[in-house]
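Q: Given only this backbone (372 positions), what sequence would you predict?
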C-alpha cells in the first residue's frame, strides 16, 4: 500500500546514529513490522519486540550541548520569574508514557525536540495535586496552587528534563493471567507472558522547575515546591510507581548542576572574549596594507611559534615572497622592527664580520632598501 513519505525515506537507516533523535527513531522508524498484520510477532526473531527495544537500550541518548543549553535557559527563566528549581536524581528506574501506542505494546514519552525521556509539566502538576489531596493539604490552598475548573492556578509546572544524556535500559513484566476465560480461569500454574518495555536507568538526574503565574504568595510557592519534592520521594513519578519506579530525590544534583552552570558560563564568557578578539583582529587587518596583512598572517601561522618575528620575515623576503615595491615595504617593516628590538647593526667590531649574524642581516636589509 502507498505510504505518504518522502522519496528519500526509501533509504531506511539501519541503526540509530550517535546524534540522532532517539524518540523519532523509536516511534517512527520501526522497520521490522509485518505490514500485512501490522505486528512485530512474525518478523523472524524469537523476541522481535525486545529486539526493537534494544535498538535504543544500553546506550545514552541526548545531545550534551543541546541539553546544557536547554537547562541553562530553563534555570534563567525560573530565576528571573522568582520560581524554584532543583536537579533531582532517580533512585530507581523511571518510565513515562507506557500507555502510548507503540508496536511493542508499551510506549515511551520522548521530548519532542531533545529526543530524551522527560516528564511533562502536566504530569508533574497531576502528581503534586494527587499528593496534596492524599496528604490533606488545606482545601483553600489546593485551588490556589492548582486552579479549578473555571480558574487557573497560581503555579506553572514546567517539564522535567534530563540535565545530561541519560542511559536507557530494557525491562520486562511477566503477567501470568493473560488470555483466561471462565472455563480456563487465571492461576499461578499458567505460563507467564513476557512484555518488554523501555526505561530510564537509575541515577539519572532531571531538572524540575515551577513559576508563579502572578499574585502568588511565597507561602503557596513554597507549598507547591514541597509537594513536588515529597511526591517524588515517596510516591514517585511516571508509571509503575507501585513497585518502586520513579522515585527522585535531592542527591547533590542541584549542587553539581550549579557548578556545571558556572563552568558553562565561564566557558561561554571565554568564547565570547575569543570571538571579540577575533573581531578586533579582523578589523585591524582590514586597516593594514596587503603586505602588512601578509606579514601579520604569516607571523600568526608560522610553524615554530618561538621563532623570532624578525627571523621569520627575513626568511620570507630572502625566499622572494615579495618583489618590487612590495619587497621594499616588507624590508622597511623589517628594518623598523630590527631597530625597535635593538637588532640593527650597520657596523661591527668583530674580527670576522661575516660571522656577526646581526650585522650581516642588517647589511642585507639595507641592500633590499637600496634596491627598492
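A: Predicted residues:
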Amino acid at each position: 500500500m502507498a505510504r505518504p513519505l518522502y522519496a528519500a525515506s526509501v533509504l531506511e537507516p539501519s541503526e540509530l546514529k550517535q546524534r540522532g533523535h532517539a524518540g523519532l527513531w523509536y516511534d517512527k522508524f520501526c522497520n521490522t513490522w509485518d505490514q500485512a498484520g501490522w505486528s512485530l510477532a512474525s518478523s523472524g526473531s524469537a523476541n522481535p519486540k525486545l529486539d526493537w527495544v534494544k535498538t535504543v537500550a544500553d546506550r545514552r541518548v541526548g545531545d550534551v550541548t543541546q541539553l546544557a543549553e536547554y537547562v541553562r535557559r530553563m534555570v534563567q527563566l525560573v530565576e528571573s520569574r522568582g520560581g524554584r528549581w532543583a536537579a533531582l536524581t532517580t533512585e530507581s528506574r523511571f518510565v513515562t508514557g507506557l500507555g502510548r501506542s507503540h508496536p511493542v505494546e508499551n510506549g515511551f514519552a520522548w521530548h519532542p525536540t531533545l529526543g530524551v525521556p522527560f516528564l511533562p509539566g502536566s504530569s508533574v502538576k497531576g502528581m503534586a495535586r494527587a499528593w496534596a489531596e492524599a496528604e490533606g493539604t488545606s482545601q483553600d490552598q489546593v485551588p490556589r496552587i492548582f486552579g479549578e475548573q473555571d480558574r487557573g492556578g497560581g503555579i506553572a509546572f514546567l517539564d522535567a528534563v534530563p540535565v545530561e544524556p541519560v542511559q536507557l535500559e530494557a525491562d520486562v513484566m511477566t503477567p501470568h493471567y493473560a488470555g483466561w476465560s471462565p472455563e480456563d480461569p487465571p492461576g499461578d500454574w499458567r505460563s507467564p507472558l513476557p512484555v518488554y518495555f523501555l526505561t530510564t536507568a537509575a541515577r539519572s538526574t532531571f531538572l524540575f522547575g515551577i513559576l508563579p503565574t502572578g499574585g502568588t504568595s511565597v507561602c503557596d510557592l513554597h507549598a507547591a515546591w514541597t509537594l513536588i519534592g515529597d511526591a517524588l520521594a515517596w510516591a514517585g513519578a511516571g508509571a509503575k510507581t507501585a513497585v518502586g519506579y520513579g522515585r527522585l530525590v535531592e542527591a547533590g544534583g542541584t549542587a553539581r548542576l550549579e557548578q556545571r552552570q558556572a563552568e558553562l558560563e565561564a566557558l561561554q564568557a571565554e568564547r565570547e572574549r575569543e570571538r571579540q578578539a577575533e573581531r578586533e583582529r579582523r578589523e585591524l587587518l582590514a586597516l593594514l596594507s596587503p603586505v602588512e596583512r601578509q606579514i601579520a598572517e604569516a607571523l600568526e601561522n608560522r610553524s615554530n611559534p618561538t621563532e623570532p618575528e624578525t627571523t621569520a620575515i627575513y626568511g620570507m623576503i630572502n625566499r622572494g615572497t615579495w618583489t618590487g615595491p612590495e619587497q621594499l615595504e616588507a624590508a622597511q617593516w623589517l628594518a623598523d622592527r630590527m631597530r625597535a628590538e635593538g637588532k640593527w647593526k650597520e657596523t661591527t667590531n668583530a674580527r670576522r664580520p661575516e660571522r656577526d649574524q646581526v650585522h650581516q642581516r642588517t647589511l642585507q636589509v639595507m641592500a633590499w632598501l637600496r634596491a627598492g
